[in-house]
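Late entry, written up from scratch paper. The run itself happened at the end of the previous shift, but nothing got recorded in the book at the time, so transcribing now.
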Amino acid sequence: MILAARHEVYVEARERNPARWSRCTRDWTPIGAVTLNPERESVVTMASHATLKQPLAA
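Output as recorded:
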């Protein structure tokens, strides 16, 4: 619903001031789930395994 409302706002803004727009408006199609640092889990896992293999300092 939010993306559809944003699309309507952009369409109306483009109709009010077409000179401001040189191309189409943004594509507000939902893209699904988004994650920040999706590789983080594998990096954390590899780092934790690496520290377990290293001997502790005396």
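Helices lie at 2-16, 40-53.
(Scratch paper discarded after transcription.)
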